Amino acid sequence: MKVKCIFLFFVCLIYTSFSFASDLDGVLELIKNDKETEAIARINRYIQKYPSDPELIFLRGATLDHFGKTREAKEDFLILSNKYPKDPIIKNNLGVLYSKLGEYRKARFLFESALKLKTDYQEAKNNLSLIQKQDRVYLTSK
Questions:
Q1: If 0-12 CB within 10 Å is exposed, 13-18 middle and 19+ buried, where does residue 55 land?
Q2: Spatial distance between the Cα atoms of 25 and 44, rounded to a whole number of angstroms
Q3: DSSP string, 52-97
Q4: Which residues contact 99 (CB under 8 A, 6 or more apart)?
Q5: Of residues 137 and 59, which shows the higher confidence score?
């Protein structure tokens, strides 16, 4: 089962929204070239300067997940979810992370929460559908 995160879209969105976007050219290039340590270190330096910037925290979480550090990414998205409880995009992405960690009930709850906040959110609908299919397979295999 593969639920989807909207990582690349947000990297591009974040990239264009920063006033210091030219400084982030290097971060995106590092991510693209699979230079995990350098990319995360650079993002962390920005977070030290702007510790409450949600876009930077989102970028770090998405980057950590991109490099397979799903548990660490989950922590960033939990911070964002607590700070922005009515953001369906954060809920969906946190659900993706829980799904990757095998915590399907939490993932389902987050996808459903995202859909309550934005009923036409197609990505959350697709992810919820994948979780429901997996639940049916599990129940019929017992």
A1: middle
A2: 15
A3: T-HHHHHHHHHHHHHTT-HHHHHHHHHHHHHH-TT-HHHHHHHHHH
A4: 1, 3, 107, 127, 130, 131
A5: 59
- Angle between the N-to-C axes of helices 104-117 and 88-100, in degrees from 0 to 180, rounded to the nearest 10: 170
> Is residue 16 very low, low, confident or very high in pLDDT (cuts 50, 70, 90)?
very low
pTM of the predicted structure, to 2 decimals: 0.80
Write the pLDDT tens digit of every residue in 66-81. Answer: 999 999 999 999 999 9
At position 111, the amino acid (one-letter code) is F
Q: Are 81 and 73 in contact (CB under 8 A)?
A: no
Cα distances (angstroms) measured from residue 118 to each of 88, 105, 125: 6, 20, 10
**CB distance 94 to 75 below 8 Å:** no
Say if CB 91 and CB 124 are below 8 A apart: yes
Residue type, 56: L
